[in-house]
């Protein structure tokens, strides 16, 4: 039985979708199926022998052949419909794409022009395409000018604006245009980088060709200087059973940091978030995951701008904690996982809110530690058992970790 589904691709898939729809990934017209994917990974070509360097895939868990999937941008706007002709147990789907409208999400949408539109403006003139992943230095600018003069070509700056650094890269391209020959064009292309530099370069060649380039120059790779830890965003994420002491330690840490000064502190307690940001959610696994994702989103936004966020949910599931870590680190911030490992017996003995008693009586279903599992982290940066130490000592241990890591001075 076929179904009409809606799905929001992840950041990389969304970027690839945009390039498929615009024609920048010519000759591809859709996401790769298993045969094409195997041949690309093994031989750098599609199953029909057409050269293609990199996997371009979409995974939609549970989708079946015949399903129609409306692909949404992060704001919920429909971008395209995928009619599934191939699906696998790994969630990989393939099939024809039908565009539904122009891409409008994200910054500099006016500069995300299609190859057809750019080719029309170029009107057959020789074109030198420069793919940029970082700002152009003086040597690169001089080389571009020299090659453009030699070819009598129009310069096309393709700012490969993917991820958090995208807007800054587009601004760098617009600034570089001021030093280049009159008529230089700037186009924003959301091409996600590939780990293999040779494959990444070959993919950039394909995109440049799609935009009508007679010659392609790859700009210099960006130099990333993350800055000292005390100026970077940080999320201190406490996890542990109810009654373990995590909220009390988190509050103590917040107060200690406010007394020290020097950092903007955001405090996200699990119970408070439940009453406000996540009001109406149940304690089912899916709703618990959603609650943690919401906490992670707010914490990431605080850390994105150099703030320090303290979170204290139970966060019982490993996969969701990993999602939050990945979200935080994707914006260039740091993530510190603190496992408050106080044993269940001690947490239940305290039972300040009477929750364990209600859970044992069956009044609270899916209660972590009683009728629902707690997946202990094996990637915690700090482990604290509050059975035999004071809250003050526990707070000091966290604060000492922040000082030794350079996050607090």
From TrEMBL:
E.C. no: 2.7.1.25
CDD domains (UniProt xref): APSK
ATP-sulfurylase PUA-like domain boundaries: 10-86
Pfam families referenced in this protein's UniProt entry, alphabetically: APS_kinase, PUA_2
Record-linked InterPro entries: APS (IPR002891), APS_kinase_dom (IPR059117), ATP-Sase_PUA-like_dom (IPR025980), P-loop_NTPase (IPR027417), PUA-like_sf (IPR015947), Sulf_AdTrans/APS_kinase (IPR050512)
Highest taxon listed in the record's lineage: Bacteria
Pathway membership, UniProt: Sulfur metabolism; hydrogen sulfide biosynthesis; sulfite from sulfate: step 2/3
Binding site for ATP: 240-247
APS kinase domain mapped to chain residues: 232-385
Gene3D superfamilies: P-loop containing nucleotide triphosphate hydrolases, Sulfate adenylyltransferase
Annotated keywords: ATP-binding, Kinase, Nucleotide-binding, Phosphoprotein, Transferase
Reaction(s) the record says it catalyses: adenosine 5'-phosphosulfate + ATP = 3'-phosphoadenylyl sulfate + ADP + H(+)
Keyword ATP-binding found: yes
HAMAP family xrefs: Adenylyl_sulf_kinase
PANTHER family: SULFATE ADENYLYLTRANSFERASE
Family to which this protein belongs: Belongs to the APS kinase family.
Function: Catalyzes the synthesis of activated sulfate.
Protein name: Adenylyl-sulfate kinase
């Amino acid at each position: 039985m076929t179904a009409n589904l809606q799905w929001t691709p992840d950041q990389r898939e969304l970027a690839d979708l945009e390039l498929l729809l615009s024609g920048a990934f010519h000759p591809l017209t859709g996401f790769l199926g298993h045969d094409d994917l195997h041949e690309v990974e093994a031989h750098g070509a599609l199953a029909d022998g057409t050269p293609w360097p990199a996997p371009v895939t979409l995974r939609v868990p549970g989708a079946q052949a015949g399903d129609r999937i409306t692909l949404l941008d992060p704001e919920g706007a429909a971008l395209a419909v995928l009619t599934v002709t191939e699906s696998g147990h790994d969630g990989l789907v393939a099939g024809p794409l039908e565009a539904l409208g122009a891409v409008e999400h994200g910054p500099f949408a006016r500069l995300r022009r299609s190859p057809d539109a750019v080719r029309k403006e170029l009107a057959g003139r020789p074109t030198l395409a420069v793919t940029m992943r970082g700002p152009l230095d003086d040597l690169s600018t001089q080389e571009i000018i020299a090659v453009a003069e030699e070819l009598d070509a129009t310069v096309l700056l393709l700012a490969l604006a993917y991820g958090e650094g995208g807007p800054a890269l587009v601004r760098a391209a617009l600034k570089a245009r001021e030093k280049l020959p009159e008529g230089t064009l700037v186009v924003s292309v959301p091409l996600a980088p590939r780990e293999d530099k040779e494959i990444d370069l070959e993919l950039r060649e394909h995109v440049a060709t799609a935009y009508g380039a007679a010659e392609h120059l790859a700009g210099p790779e960006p130099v990333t200087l993350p800055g000292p830890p005390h100026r970077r965003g940080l999320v201190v994420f406490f996890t542990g059973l109810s009654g373990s002491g995590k909220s009390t330690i988190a509050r103590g840490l917040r107060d200690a940091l406010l007394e020290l000064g020097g950092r903007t502190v955001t405090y996200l307690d699990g119970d408070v978030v439940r009453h406000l940001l996540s009001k109406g959610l149940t304690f089912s696994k899916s709703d618990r995951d959603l609650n943690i994702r919401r906490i992670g989103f707010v914490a990431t936004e605080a850390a994105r701008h150099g703030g320090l966020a303290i979170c204290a949910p139970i966060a019982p599931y490993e996969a969701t904690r990993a999602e939050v870590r990945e979200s935080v680190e994707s914006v260039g911030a740091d993530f510190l996982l603190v496992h408050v490992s106080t044993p269940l017996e001690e947490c239940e003995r305290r039972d300040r809110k009477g929750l364990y008693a209600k859970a044992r009586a069956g009044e609270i279903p899916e209660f972590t530690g009683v009728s629902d599992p707690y997946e202990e982290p094996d990637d915690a940066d700090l482990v604290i058992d509050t059975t035999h130490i004071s809250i003050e000592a526990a707070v000091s241990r966290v604060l000492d970790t922040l000082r030794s890591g350079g996050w607090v001075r």
